[in-house]
Amino acid sequence: MKAIWTIAIREWRAMFLSPLAWTLLAVLFAICAYMFGSLVQQYLLRQLQYQAYGQAAMGGGMPVSEWTVVPLLGNTAVLLLLIVPLMSMRLIADEKRRGTWPALATSPLAPMQIILGKYLGLLLFLGATILLIAVLPASLFLYGQPDPGQFFSGLIGLFLLAATFGAIGVGASSATDNPVVAAVITFGALLLLWIAGWLGDSGAEGIGRLLGYASLIDHYEKFLQGVVSTADLAYFVIVSIAGLAFARQRLLAQRVEGF
Amino acid sequence: MSENMIEISELTRYYGLRKVLDRISLSVKRGEVMGFLGPNGAGKTTTMRILVGLLAPTEGSIHIAGMDALEKPEAARARIGFLPESPPIYDDMTVREYLSYLATLRGVTADRRKEALDRAMTHCGLTDMADRLLGHLSKGYRQRAGIAQAIVHSPDVVILDEPTAGLDPLQIREIRSLIRTLGGEHSVLLSTHILPEVQMTCDRVTLIHQGRIVVEDTLAGLEQRGQQRTRLAVRWNNTPGEKEILGIPGVAAATYTEGVWFITPGEQVDPVPELVRRSVANSWDLRELTPDAHSLEDIFVQLTKAEPDAASTTEVTP
């Protein structure tokens, strides 16, 4: 456990020592801030219309979370889909490419300890990222009454989603010694999982329903609606474990294949 | 104190269908510096990578300090320090951070860590560089940092893969004397294709060629082995004819180039005493009599050539 923490802290520090992490954070925050600003602006406009034309014209009430927090977190998920592969690509692939892997791999650690350490370091970074973005919708509490339950379940969902992205990223990073290839594999896998539900939505039976269940976005949307269910939690946990188990399998297989 | 700290037996490794190691056996005693010698691509790196657990062997067994390294890889690795061909260093860390990080991963507890770091840095001459970024250090110092990480957790066994490759002559000398001091405390396996390195640093030598162990001996033994069949270079003022030279007992063959006769001695009789006696008796005026192959270089060439059966079937990769 100590070794896992040691690797995690090292990894976390290394991320902040590289310009990549800072650049990604700055870009992400700028885009989110812009999105949030325009969402709030739209909300205010709708509120004027609501006051002018009444409840009937607007089809129900005007809960502030529905109009700001939910679309913001929904769009942030898309941004994370682009950003997490860039943060996870280095984790193992770069050690191999730079020749530092032997220092880790010849330490008395099981492969899973190295993987978990790297993963935990990534989670620390992603957690910090989400906390930073959470500042934006949290500011609404100063001026209005957004639904705190929905706010927190959305953030938990976003973190789980990012953690799942990261686990798949670790898996891809362990399968190659080229970080860019790892990023491309991660991005492709995530996008496929994202749209896996399309076949399910088309009403197909059997495999279609299964694919519908595999879809990342469907499970995430439940969290955005404020519903935290065991089924959705289990989905994220299972996919994450699968990503990390794949990483372990690759590392062990590479000892036999030899490279 | 003659227990074997490294014990490899019957190690075989395939890459696909290609056999890169063919039933290699090797042992290193406690405190000994073993030179692992062979041309590039002979299988040195593969053997070492298997030894430290980066590669799995196809067949064979490895014991590190009496522990089965294939059954208990983590426990065995705790006793090993490894320096790969290029030092595994992180450019964004200082020397101290780097050594502290790896010492922690290798189970050096917090209360002993400072002492372990100081010892490793002093040993490798890194104390003045402790707070410099590794990325800013010269190649020689990066190499030292690589060696420091291999000894920071006081392992019983230190494995160095071509530790002097790519260094300038002065750095090479420093690294070699550093390696020399590792013996005694650690058992060292050192791979190289540079022969003087072995002469300067090692107690024993194992020669590997095309995935097979060709010979394993002490340095003195290896030199003796080479000298038995060494040609003699002989120069006279009044050079005798070929017939007279071949007439000396113990001379198997003789060739003449640019004023020097190269004499190949026979298997049993040493031709030298009789050669000198006749030179004096016949007034040939002996000027020079030297063994032509006096360096390890020639032994190396001789021994690697003398394996015709292996060469045809095994192809070797680095």
Helix/strand structural class of chain B: alpha/beta
How many structural domains can be distinguished in the coordinates of chain B? 2
What is the H/E order of chain A?
A: HHHHHHHHHHHHHHH
Strand % of chain B is 25-35%
pLDDT average of chain A, as an integer? 89
Short overview:
The complex is a heterodimer of chains A (259) and B (318). By secondary structure, chain A is mostly helical. Chain A is 85% helix and 0% strand.
Describe this structure in words.
The complex is a heterodimer of chains A (259) and B (318). In chain A, α10 packs parallel to α15. The two termini of chain A are 28 Å apart. Chain A has 259 residues and is an all-alpha fold. Helix content of chain A is 85%, strand content 0%. In chain A, 39% of the residues are buried. Chain A contains 15 helices and no strands. Chain A has helices spanning 2-17, 19-53, 55-58, 64-67, 69-88, 90-98, 101-105, 111-138, 140-143, 148-174, 179-195, 197-201, 207-214, 216-224, 230-257. Chain A has one domain (2-257). Chain B has 318 residues and is an alpha/beta fold. Chain B has 2 domains: 4-218, Rossmann fold; 231-292. Chain B is 35% helix and 28% strand. Chain B has 12 helices and 14 strands. Chain B has a 6-stranded mixed sheet, sandwiched between helices. In chain B, strands 2-1-4-5 form a 4-stranded antiparallel sheet. In chain B, strands 12-13-11-14 form a 4-stranded antiparallel sheet. In chain B, α3 crosses α4 (110-123). The longest helix of chain B has 14 residues, at 110-123. The radius of gyration of chain B is 24 Å and the shape is elongated. The chains are: A mainly alpha (259), B alpha/beta (318). The A-B interface holds A 2-3, 6-7, 10, 14, 17-18, 99-110, 255-256, 258 and B 13, 15, 52-56, 74-75, 77-78, 80, 82, 84-90, 92, 101-102, 104-107, 149.
Please describe the structure with a list of short key phrases separated by commas or semicolons.
heterodimer; A: 259 residues; mainly alpha; 15 helices; 85% helix; 0% strand; globular; B: 318 residues; alpha/beta; Rossmann fold; 2 domains; 6-stranded mixed sheet; 4-stranded antiparallel sheet; 12 helices; 14 strands; elongated; disordered C terminus
